Amino acid sequence: MSESSPNNDIRWSSRWLFVLAAAGSAVGLGNIWKFPYVAGENGGGAFVLIYLVCVGLVGAPIMMAEIALGREGRSSPITTMAKLAASAGRNSQWSIIGWMGVIAGVMILSFYGVIAGWALKYIGVLASGEFENAGASVVESTFNGLLASPVEMIFWQTIFMVGTIWIVARGVSQGLEKAIRWFMPLLFVMLIVLLGYSLRSGGFEQGWQFMFDFKWEDVGPGTWIMALGQAFFTLSLGMGTMMAYGSYVPSEARIGSTVATIVALDTVVAISAGLVIFPLVFVNNLDVAQGPGLMFVTMPLAFGQLPFGSIFGSVFFLLVSFAAITSAISLTEPAISYLVEKYNSSRWRVAVGLGFLCWLLGLGTVFSFNIWADLKLAFGLNFFDLVDQISSNILLPLGGLLIAIFITWKLPRETVAGQIEIESEPIWSLWKVVTGVVAPVSVLVVFLNTFVPFF
Ligand code: PHE
Predict the structure, then answer these.
(1) pTM (predicted TM-score)
(2) Between the chain's N and C termini, which has fewer beta carbons within 10 Å?
(3) Largest Cα–Cα distance in the chain?
(4) Is 389 in the pocket of ligand 1 (CB under 6 A)?
(5) Is there an atom of ligand 1 within 6 Å of 113 CB?
(6) Distance (Å, rounded) from C-alpha 252 to C-alpha 141?
(7) pLDDT tens across 4-13, in order?
(8) 25 C-alpha vs ligand 1 centroid, how far in Å?
(9) Domains of the chain by range and CATH?
(10) Mutation test of ligand 1: which of 331, 333, 337, 394 has the most ligand atoms closer than 8 Å to its C-beta?
(11) Is the dihedral of CA 341, 408, 329, 390 positive or negative?
(12) Is 407 exposed, middle or buried, given 0-12, 13-18 or 19+ CB atoms closer than 10 A?
């Protein structure tokens, strides 16, 4: 593609920096906050196994597809899709994938900002030492106190959103790349320390069994779609984030091994978070299915027992907040890159506008935990659950489905082969079957299973 676009000349300075940025996008609240709580609500092992299958069979090929399309188009996802469709003689409506992604991004960021706000607040709560040797009831009542106060939640949500937008407005900066280099490994170290603690907590076996014992009878009606949606959410797929980031990938980087690295990193972080949290749930007789508060109750309990726990705990929530910010930035990238391209307007104006929209929509999530807690909007879901389910479990898999179909069946082979660098014929066929058949059919079957009664 040779047409010029404002994004045309920007490149990650190396493949490794791209891996860091993509991992920064993938690793976030999805791994540490959402994965354990959704697994807890959906039967543990039954959910985890299906989730892992979705990551490998659907997520990995779609991530390759997104990065390949992004690098081929070298523009925002909306423009990339329009350009590639036009050059292959296909309908220009394929750019709908980009639009859906922008909508999904706004919806996800709206609640992401609220939850990340909780993490920000906990940096200080832990540092205050209030949880030293505290029992479950103290930790729970602190968390419930936060949920009961919309004003406090809005305060922290606002801080997080302002921080995110400030970074976005200044452009994906060198500083951020440097920071990811430090924070990511630190987050790993922290998880390993915590794993050591939960191994000796007395609940490890039970936690392990909960996560890995697969029983068919635990697979409920919602398990499939929740696991599929989680795979998309945690890998930042189906909404153009990886396509937007892919547009900055240097031509010589190999997509296959890059994707393998990102997927492995992301999965290891999620599984470790689960292995830290579930044992603590069982030793402390907490409810595995308690929902979004799971991390904010179990982690402080652990830190309360550890030497220097207040400092460690504070650093832990700092790292979680940082992981959240690198993901939040990536949630805005499809929309921002398009708006900048289209209107040639300043990144500042566009970023502030988008940020405000997400913040405003996020108020619905804030109220879902207090004044609107009993307000069920549709399907028995409150505002937060509805926004989360529509974006994570419907828009992302649907986007992924279309991306997989587009790259395998609508683009000329030379274009795709040039990007994903597969020379041997059997491997090409395998790639085509997995991306063009297995991945989309899996999404379709899960959709039918969920939305069509008696399927
Ligand atoms: N992957 C991020 C997380 O796990 C969330 C995200 C979803 C980011 C979609 C970008 C796009 O927290």
Answers:
(1) 0.94
(2) C
(3) 66
(4) no
(5) no
(6) 53
(7) 445 555 677 6
(8) 6
(9) 15-454 (1.20.1740)
(10) 331
(11) positive
(12) buried
